[in-house]
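Pilot study result, target chain (160 residues):
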Amino acid sequence: MSYPLRQLRPVVLILLSTFGIVASIAFRFASLPAASSYVLAGCIVVTLLSLAVDVVAGLRAGEFGLDFLAAVAMASALWFGENLAGAIVAVMYAGGQFLEAYAHHRADEGMSDLLAKIPRTARRLRRRSPPPSASAPSKRAFRPPTKWPSSRKSALADRC
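Predicted structure:
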C-alpha cells in the first residue's frame, strides 16, 4: 500500500518529535546535556520546517491560524534556548496534525463506503389503474385486563 508524502508527514512528525524527547531524556540520564539539547533542537527545527510550509501556504490563502502561533512559539523557544518547551510544542503540533489526518482518512473511508451503496440505476413505476384503497384497522377502546398481577394491582387500578 503506497501513501503519498502528504499522508505520511503527520506520522513522521509525531514519531520524530516523540523520539526526540525520549532520546533527550536518555541523554540527560547519561550525563550528556549538550547532546540532549542538540537532539531537542533538531526535533524542533525539523518540525518547524514542516510547519513553515503550512504557514506560508495558509498566509497565501489569507488564513491566519494557530499554526502561525505554534511556529512563533517554537522559533522563540529556539532563540531563547528553551529547547524542551519548544519540543513539547512540536509534539503538540505533530499530534494535532496526526489526529487531523486520521479523522480525514476515516471520513473519506466512511464516505466511500456510503457512496458505494447508492443505486446506480433508477426505474420508474407506471400504474395504469388506481391503487386499491386500503382501509385503516378499526381502533378499539382501551380496556384494562381483567386479571391484575398482585404487586401492580393497586397502582394500575387507580390509573384506569
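One observation from the pilot: The two ends are 68 Å apart (CA to CA). A full batch analysis is planned for the follow-on phase.
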